[in-house]
Specification:
alpha/beta, TIM Barrel, 3 domains, 9-stranded parallel sheet, 20 helices, 11 strands, about 45% helix, binds iron/sulfur cluster
Length: about 475
């Protein structure tokens, strides 16, 4: 077979994630990591530019961003962090979107060597939620205050067929407990067919999330020795099938710690460039999970683990490269790491998460079942504690799902980002959904801090009319059971 040629527009995995191009990129980055002139020009390109209506950002190519990632000049690294913060503030303000994972089933036919759900792990109990159990989990999540979920399931055509996933989505959307509802269900399931993606779209999912784990083909095949996930091309081309099936918000991610991080970083950005080149819209989100300890899994057995400083630099460089893409961090990370990364560009965090099947219903905030856990949760605080901590650090926890509900997905969402209307749209939506949380679920202490923040932040809404509507809606939230206001 002829050597594949690098082509971002190709639909073949080995042509858009081109090993030769990644290796040349890494060599170029290494050769230029102290080229101050080049680094300065890349930093200039990355800076947000003020326009009449707001800000725009050019983003960076995988080559440019790789030079920044390789750069080891301390002042330049500080500049990367500073620009990441500027971009974060320009497009996301001080808002942080909240979500929680919901594990449906840990049956899995794959052999991923880093995951405790792999087929050969006979010591882990296998569990799949019934619809009654899904309902109970959703009520428990609503009682915490969640509005946005990411559902997770292993790949198992017999135990977790697409029909099961669709049924669960239907159940989740159907539960309305007290003032609660789940307004956006994101889905993290194995790569599948265009037809199945179409069914997920019809079921009303938000983002389809699929982590690549590693872009390095050879390592990929070794890390996924058995099961359908072994097929690198089928997995890597999944987002194209999802988009063909009508899903226009897709979420990428690599599991940092499996392969050399510079390789993964270049591959991840090439994947984003590919989606933009072929479908006209880049990834909606990028997740930055790091390998963690779990049943049967010891992260020390993988020798590509990355330290906190490198992890922060990766996150900041992603922020510069793809300014309009949300960055997600999970409870895999500690409070200290999360705190640092929030400033550098992370826009979504999970809170009060359980990574086991059936981990919410019937357990108090401090109890957590470990038997079916996918990974150790480092940040074990309750959602109320995370919300309060965010506010104490100047972030607005947002439970907003307005774009999805107003049909602003894909490029329509991107145009909102670029329109400069974020302070007139996301900001009031964040404050209204935070008020719902404060009214319905918060502890008295969180409520007090929260309403002070809401009052202050309302003043920052530029359009007087929008501000007045938001104030009225918040008054209605406090005085009645009316909910779900949005711009
Ligand atoms: S990572 Fe996913 S596909 Fe692999 S074993 Fe775990 S649940 Fe299964
Ligand atoms: S309005 Fe849209 S972009 Fe803004 S926070 Fe809500 S869902 Fe996100």
């Amino acid at each position: 077979m002829a050597n594949p040629i690098y082509n971002p527009k190709s639909l073949k995995a080995e042509e858009f994630i081109h090993d030769g191009e990644i290796r040349e990129t890494l060599a170029y980055a290494e050769a230029n990591k102290r080229n101050v002139e080049l680094i300065d020009s890349i930093l200039d390109k990355a800076r947000p530019q003020k326009t009449e209506t707001g800000y725009v950002c050019a983003g960076l190519s995988h080559r440019e961003a790789s030079v920044l990632l390789a750069c080891d000049i301390p002042e330049k690294i500080q500049e990367i962090y500073k620009i990441a913060e500027e971009i974060k503030l320009a497009f996301y303000g001080n808002r942080i979107v909240m979500f929680a994972p919901l594990y449906l089933s840990n049956y899995c036919v794959n052999g991923c060597v880093y995951c405790p759900y792999h087929l050969k792990n006979k010591q882990i109990p296998r569990k799949k939620l019934t619809q009654e159990e899904v309902r109970a989990e959703v009520i428990a999540l609503q009682d915490m205050g969640h509005k946005r979920l990411a559902i997770e399931a292993g790949e198992d055509p017999k135990n977790n067929p697409i029909e099961y996933i669709l049924e669960c989505i239907k159940t989740i959307y159907s539960v309305h407990h007290k003032n609660g509802d789940i307004r956006r269900v994101n889905v993290n399931i194995a790569a599948t067919t265009v037809e199945n993606y179409r069914k997920l779209k019809e079921a009303g999912i938000g983002t389809y999330i699929l982590f690549q784990e590693t872009y390095h083909k050879e390592s990929y095949e070794q890390l996924h020795p058995t099961g359908p996930k072994h097929d690198y091309a089928y997995h890597t081309e999944a987002m194209d099938r999802a988009m063909e099936g009508g899903i226009d918000d897709v979420g990428l991610g690599v599991l940092f710690g499996l392969e050399l991080y510079k390789y993964e970083f270049a591959g991840l950005l090439m994947h984003a460039e590919h989606l933009e080149a072929v479908h006209g819209v880049g990834p909606h989100t990028i997740s930055v999970p790091r390998l963690k300890r779990a049943d049967d899994i010891d992260p020390d057995q993988f020798d590509n683990g990355i330290d906190d400083e490198t992890f922060a630099k990766i996150t900041a460089c992603i922020r510069l490269a793809v300014p309009y893409t949300g960055i997600i961090i999970s409870t895999r990370e500690t409070e200290a790491t999360r705190s640092k990364l929030l400033r550098l560009g992370v826009s979504q965090v999970s809170g009060g998460s359980r990574t086991s099947v059936g981990g919410y219903a019937g357990y108090s905030a401090d109890e957590r079942p470990h038997d079916t856990e996918q990974f150790d949760v480092s940040d074990q605080r309750s959602l109320d504690e995370v919300v309060r901590w965010l506010m104490e650090n100047g972030h607005i926890p947002s439970f907003c799902t307005a774009c999805y509900r107003e049909g602003r997905t894909g490029d329509r969402f991107m145009s909102l980002c670029k329109s400069g209307q974020i302070l007139n749209c996301c900001h009031p939506n964040a404050l209204m959904t935070l008020s719902e949380y404060l009214e319905d679920y918060a502890s008295p202490e969180t409520k007090e801090i929260g309403y002070k923040m809401v009052e202050e932040e309302l003043k920052r809404i530029p359009k007087e009319k929008v501000r007045a509507i938001a104030e009225d809606n918040i008054a209605a939230i406090k005085a009645s059971t009316r909910r779900d206001f949005r711009f």
